[in-house]
Automatic annotation (TrEMBL):
<keyword id="KW-0472">Membrane</keyword>
<keyword id="KW-0732">Signal</keyword>
<dbReference type="GO" id="GO:0005886">
    <property type="term" value="C:plasma membrane"/>
</dbReference>
<keyword id="KW-0336">GPI-anchor</keyword>
<feature type="domain" description="X8">
    <location>
        <begin position="31"/>
        <end position="114"/>
    </location>
</feature>
<dbReference type="Pfam" id="PF07983">
    <property type="entry name" value="X8"/>
</dbReference>
<dbReference type="GO" id="GO:0009506">
    <property type="term" value="C:plasmodesma"/>
</dbReference>
<dbReference type="GO" id="GO:0098552">
    <property type="term" value="C:side of membrane"/>
</dbReference>
<dbReference type="InterPro" id="IPR012946">
    <property type="entry name" value="X8"/>
</dbReference>
<keyword id="KW-0325">Glycoprotein</keyword>
<feature type="signal peptide">
    <location>
        <begin position="1"/>
        <end position="20"/>
    </location>
</feature>
<protein>
    <submittedName>
        <fullName>Major pollen allergen Ole e 10-like isoform X2</fullName>
    </submittedName>
</protein>
<keyword id="KW-0449">Lipoprotein</keyword>
<dbReference type="InterPro" id="IPR044788">
    <property type="entry name" value="X8_dom_prot"/>
</dbReference>
Amino acid sequence: MAKAAFSLVFLLLSFTSGSGLPVSVVNAQKTWCVAKPSSDQATLLANINYACSQVDCKILQKGCPCFDPDNLMNHASVAMNLYYQSHGRSHWSCDFRNSGLVVISDPSYSNCIYA
């Protein structure tokens, strides 16, 4: 009995990610990238410029779904998520020099749908 329990624990541990959740659960869960609330204005602007040089950020233009609220935190979060989604949703594609945050709650609002 003890040998069977040990085998089961070993099997479960071999199929877990660093978070302790089974790999299949972590990989199946939808995630988004947003700017950390503690990010300064210069960092947010740099993140927008970098992300939008790599992906299409038209949804941030005036009159488009994600323009409002018109502030750097919102625009950076949308741009960073566009980059994150287009680069495979890997942890490092949301790093942005440690100013990105991977979240499991959908940050979409109104007509601004985070991909």
